[in-house]
Each structure stands twice: as C-alpha cells, then as structure tokens.
Amino acid sequence: DDDDDIPQLSSHALAALQEFYLEQQQREGMKTSQGFNQYSVGSIEEDWQLSQFWYSDETASRLAHEAVVEAGKGGRIACVSAPSVYQKLKEQDSKDFSVCILEYDRRFSVYGEEFIFYDYNHPLNLPENLLPHSFDIVIADPPYLSEECLQKTAETIKYLTKGKILLCTGAIMEEQAAKHLGVKICKFIPKHSRNLANEFRCYVNYASALD
User: Fold this and answer.
1) Which residue positions does the secretion signal occupy (predicted)?
2) Secondary structure of the chain: what % helix, strand, coil (to 5)?
C-alpha cells in the first residue's frame, strides 16, 4: 500500500494538535468578541523563537502592583522586555503613573507612542527623548539566560532608572545579577502561564514587599 510511506501522527500528538487549534480558535473568538481588552496578558501570543514566555496573571498583577507602589504617585515606570507587566499596568487605566515598553517584538507597536523598539545588543541605542535616569523604577526581564544578555540589558537599566530596579531572570543568574546590577534575590517566586524548565526569580536593589 502506497499509504504506508506517509508519516502518521500518533493519537497523542493528534490530540495535542487539535487542542492547540481549539485554543487558537477560542483566542481569536475572544479578540473579535465585544469587550476584548488589547492590554490583557496573552492578547499578543508568545513567540518562543524570541524566547517569549508570559507571566501568569497572578504574577503579572503582583509585579505591576509592586511597580506602582515603588514608582509613587505620578511616577514613571519602564518595562524592558517585560510586556506582561506593561499590559497589566495598562489594564488599570490609571492616571497616577505613566509607563512605556521597550521591546524587540514590533507587534507591541500597536501600543503607540509608549512602545520603544529595543534590541539588547545595542543597549544605549534609544530615542533622544528617553532621558537618562528619568524612570522611578525599571522592570526588566532579559530574554536569554546568559551573562552577555544580562550585562547589556543592565546598561539599559542603569541608563533609565533613577535608582530602583526590579529584575526577573533565572535563579542561576543570581551571582551575575548582583555583579552587574547590585540586586538581591526576593522570596517571591514568579510564575509563567506555561511552566519553564529553569527556576525563575525576582531581584531588587531596594526594600521590597516582594521579600
């Protein structure tokens, strides 16, 4: 039979594929339904090729709350490669703070002037109107668990922040995070909407409610 040479999906793989397509259809249905919030975490889907892994809703909310408290009334918040937190901040629709998102993925340009294209390989290649030390707190989640990526992202963070830093990265980066940013690990353990193989942690350089 000629069909013998045609690769067949296992029943498990086929079920997983059908589940994926069903989830995709449901997401598209949500997007077209009334009341869809463009700032909801997951409204822009993860691109694993860009090493994107969105936080769980609970984690995004906790980090957004931390940023608002630490920025203070009228404060400015920068989210560097941390779109989940940016989206959660925008969900609040508050005039008590302002926020911008620095991100390599140009899909986030749908957020208008608050989107700033950012490539960690060129850490100080930033718009002229993005003044040094103009943000009350910077939240950053470097896309890769490498010292090179952390070191270059750290240059951006130090340029932007007035002082406060909230870093999210792997537990294995603890020593390098202290070396490049002077941050210490927190007790709070961030979670992602999909489980990651690497243990993930938060780091700060100030007295934090996350500890």
Assistant:
1) none
2) 40, 20, 40
Give this prediction's pTM: 0.78
Mean pLDDT lowest among 95-99, 126-130, 191-195, 197-201: 191-195
Q: What is the pLDDT of residues 1-40, one digit of tens each?
A: 455 555 565 666 666 666 665 665 555 544 444 444 554 4
Burial of 42 from C-beta contacts in 10 A (0-12 / 13-18 / 19+): middle
Q: Report yes or no: 57 and 14 within 8 Å, Cβ to Cβ.
A: no
Reference 75, options 120, 136, 23, 148; nearest CA is 136
User: Up-side HSE of residue 37: CA atoms within 13 Å toward CB?
Assistant: 11
Fold of 48-204: Rossmann fold (3.40.50)
